[in-house]
Amino acid sequence: MPELPDVETVARRLRRTVAGRHITGVRVLSPATIHSPHPRRFIRELSGRTVHMVDRRGKYLLIRLSGARTLIVHLRMTGDFELVPHAAPVHPHTRVILRFGRADLRFTDQRRFGHMDLAPSEAEFGPVAELGLEPLGASFTPGRWRALLRGRRGTIKSLLLRQDLIAGIGNIYADEILWQARLHPARPAHRMRQAEVGRLYRSIRRVLRRAVTHLSRYGRPVGRFLEVRGERDIACPRCGHPIAVARIAGRTTYYCPNCQR
């Protein structure tokens, strides 16, 4: 499942390539990809608009359009966009095509889990409106982070995965963030000391920023810079102790039982 760095990378790429372009036509090859409105209305309302900006909120892409509309896209596991000449052959996994004159922006999705919604704004689209703080945004300050954690009884990992608290972090980056912060994923959040809360805050920002930079420059795989890569039987890069695997917060979790406390 794409996490914040993956979606941010796609948003930046689209911002460079399609912002300012006029949509001259729309084709929906897979109606199931369109959650709302009905595919016929989706085509009608999207055609003729101009792409003003491409942003990200949590794990969602926000393609802001003229006429007060936002195309909200969740990539899910295999969704992606490619800008190609209009005459290029259509890939079998192409689900939606936005035409920009002689070029197409094509949404491909092998697993068919990705989806699109056309809404007046993200504020009127429940799943986005309910998201928590943006961990790379200006509003995510040490003070707000401490306030967010105050009194929370869940494990540290479960809180990192709660999209209504902090948006965009998934299983892979939660493990990396906790390893970098030297914090055990099953530890109750309310038992962290102030210094540890600060360490976790810095780890969140550092790991996500590094991931965005890496993906923007090199693309996948992320394993080239992640220290905890979801692999069994490897040694902790910091202390050499075997990495442990456990079910924590309902997710398969990789951590070092020796140096994560």
Automatic annotation (TrEMBL):
* Annotated PROSITE patterns: FPG_CAT, ZF_FPG_1, ZF_FPG_2
Reaction(s) catalyzed by this protein?
2'-deoxyribonucleotide-(2'-deoxyribose 5'-phosphate)-2'-deoxyribonucleotide-DNA = a 3'-end 2'-deoxyribonucleotide-(2,3-dehydro-2,3-deoxyribose 5'-phosphate)-DNA + a 5'-end 5'-phospho-2'-deoxyribonucleoside-DNA + H(+); Hydrolysis of DNA containing ring-opened 7-methylguanine residues, releasing 2,6-diamino-4-hydroxy-5-(N-methyl)formamidopyrimidine
Q: Provide the alphabetized UniProt keywords.
A: DNA damage, DNA repair, DNA-binding, Glycosidase, Hydrolase, Lyase, Metal-binding, Multifunctional enzyme, Zinc, Zinc-finger
Please give the Pfam families that the UniProt record associates with this protein: Fapy_DNA_glyco (PF01149), H2TH (PF06831), zf-FPG_IleRS (PF06827)
Q: Which GO terms describe its biological process?
A: base-excision repair
Which EC number applies?
3.2.2.23, 4.2.99.18
Q: Which residues form the Formamidopyrimidine-DNA glycosylase catalytic domain?
A: 2-114
Origin, by domain of life? Bacteria
Cofactor(s) listed: Zn(2+)
The UniProt record lists the FPG-type domain at 227-261
Q: Which GO terms label this protein's molecular function in UniProt?
A: 8-oxo-7,8-dihydroguanine DNA N-glycosylase activity; class I DNA-(apurinic or apyrimidinic site) endonuclease activity; damaged DNA binding; zinc ion binding
| Family that this chain belongs to | Belongs to the FPG family.
Subunit notes for this chain?
A: Monomer.
* Protein name per the record: Bifunctional DNA-formamidopyrimidine glycosylase/DNA-(Apurinic or apyrimidinic site) lyase
Q: Which organism is it from?
A: Candidatus Segetimicrobium genomatis
